[in-house]
């Protein structure tokens, strides 16, 4: 058999390879040269690579814990815990209101079904008989609609219900907000908001999370919630639970029940967390999003439960803003295209991410709970040039010497990527190995038509490809083929 010039034997191919690429169909992933060099020089720890977005179990500041304890002491703890559990389950199961056109369409279908089943012919009936059957059919239709269609009702918060909401939802919502605000901070480290607008502010959780993320930065807090009891409770929390205290822990706090009529005033950071589901119609949701976008000077953050309904509300808001223009998605999507998880309408799958938090009513210091959220962070202006790293959109499957992960990429697709050290290089493999669901993978995505093989070294390379396993190899000048 013919042999090449004396040099490296075929069996040494794998040892010579320093490739950090992955080919999936027509797509290739590779680490940026600068980042690969920094990781080689151990300037980055793999567990803290620049794509990490997840946070460990998030605990609340002691100041807010003390204030909550002061306020909840006035109520029987067992009663609060029991009602908090029920409220959490109810809020998680909550769905969007059924649209009027859907109800009308269903009613017509039910009516036709009943008429055909009973073989009714109204043209042959007397007026009295017709009225009798129409009334009976209407009653059957209403009963069927109640059984098969979701009956949405607004939630009314009195003083006790507000306290139950505080007990049930402050910890998970605070953790979710801190996690999403981290996306902004990592995306733009120099961003320091001076003003905050919170729509559906509830017990003021957004203000606490924003001030924890950007301490001392925000000078104006505009908090809007239709419930006066919620606003009162939020104010008491900022007064350390002391009704007689004249000052609040944050400057420039304004509580309102309704949005300002004019949209001329803008705010650096506008937030809607867990409030879209409380709008009675889709038109109201879209109108609210449009109003919030007009109030946004830099960032708009929207968060909902990670259910199908919550994800649907997030997608409505995302599409509405992108359609209006002058903005782009910062997170979680690395693109402004249609979400790939909405392409198969027969099998809706929410794009959601886990958040860990310490439950409020627990005596165990290491207690940890988790819930899933759907969210979107949008920014005014045009998307800047630069790399857009893919994001893990499901839990990576970490096996022996390889990792399977699903990545949402800048081309608008979800790519399944199996990563091994031998094929993709130590640096990319370790980055993926230490990443979790929701993190970014610091890799560049290219098409095969582009330069798909990137060296970890700055020297020119010669790339050889084995016909047996289609693996790329670098720094091989003389090859012996058997």
Core attributes:
eight-stranded mixed β-sheet; four-stranded antiparallel β-sheet; 13 helices; 36% helix; disordered C terminus
Task: Write up this protein.
The protein is an alpha/beta fold. It contains 13 helices and 19 strands. It has helices spanning 13-16, 33-40, 62-72, 77-93, 100-118, 127-148, 159-187, 205-213, 228-238, 282-295, 308-324, 421-424, 426-433, and strands spanning 8-9, 21-24, 27-31, 195-199, 220-224, 253-256, 267-273, 296-305, 327-331, 353-357, 369-380, 391-392, 397-399, 402-408, 414-420, 443-447, 464-465, 472-473, 479-480. The strands form 5 sheets. Strands 4, 5, 6, 7, 8, 9, 10 and 11 form an 8-stranded mixed beta sheet that branches. Helix 10 links the parallel strand 7 (267-273) and strand 8 (296-305). Helix 4 (77-93) crosses helix 7, helix 7 (159-187) packs parallel to helix 8 and helix 10 (282-295) crosses helix 11. It is globular and about 90 Å long. Mean pLDDT is 83; it is low at 1-25 and 448-482.
Shape: globular
**Main beta-sheet strand count, sense and barrel state:** 8 strands, mixed
Work out the number of β strands: 19
Radius of gyration: 28 Å
Strand content: 15-25%
What level of helicity do the residues show? 25-40%
* Overall pLDDT confidence: 83
Number of helices: 13
How far do the termini sit from each other? 7 Å
Briefly note the structural class of the backbone. alpha/beta
Low-confidence stretches: 1-25, 448-482
